[in-house]
Each structure stands twice: as structure tokens, then as C-alpha cells.
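Side project, low priority. Logging it here so it doesn't get lost.
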Amino acid sequence: MTPPSNLEANNRAPESANRLQAEHLREMLHAQCEQLDADLATYGAALERYQRRGEQTQARRIRGMIRAAERERRSVQDLIAGLERRFLGGEGSRTESARHPSATGGPARHVVPRAHPYPTPHRVIRT
């Protein structure tokens, strides 16, 4: 039979492995956020340039790229927040109220599921 101290160490090993993996993934996601921030800065400069020149078609295209990058950045931030809540105990995470105002303890609102105007390949649309 295994001594009790070994059982405790064996039970802690998966938790520490999960924590290490979560920290590594969090760093990767932070790097992705930094890259998206750099892309957004580049897109913003390009948008200003196209607007100055009066090239509306290019400006519209860049605005779409900016919206897509902002959506991706929000989803990466949500992944980071979920990862920190689940595996890292909320250390270093931003406050929930910054992302979800209803978490401040204010009046409860009826939450309506958001409609997505553009389907993605990962979403099945039933008619």
C-alpha cells in the first residue's frame, strides 16, 4: 500500500500540471493579443490614409478588417479570463465588471441571446 504522503503528492501532480499548462496557454494568448493590438494599430493608420485620399472602397475594406480583429481580440480576452477563472484562481485577471457590467451587483437584466448576423462555418443554421 502507498503511504498517505505519496497519495497526496499524486493528487497534487495533475493540478500543478494543469496550472503549468494554463500559465503557458495564458502567455500564448497574451502574445496573440499583443499581435492583434499591433495589427489594429496598422489597420487604423491605413484607414486614416485611405480616408484622407478619399478611397472609400479601401476604407470600407479596412473597417471590416478592424471589426474582425476586434472580435478576435475580444474572444481571446474571454479565453484568457475563462482560463484564469478555472485554472489560475483569478490571479492577474481583469475584473469581471470591466467585461460584464451586470457582475457589479447592479439591477438584474433579462439576458437575451445575441443574434449573429453573419454565419460562420462552425455554426449550423437551422430553418
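Brief comment: The helical segments are 4-53, 56-87, 96-99.
Revisit when time allows.
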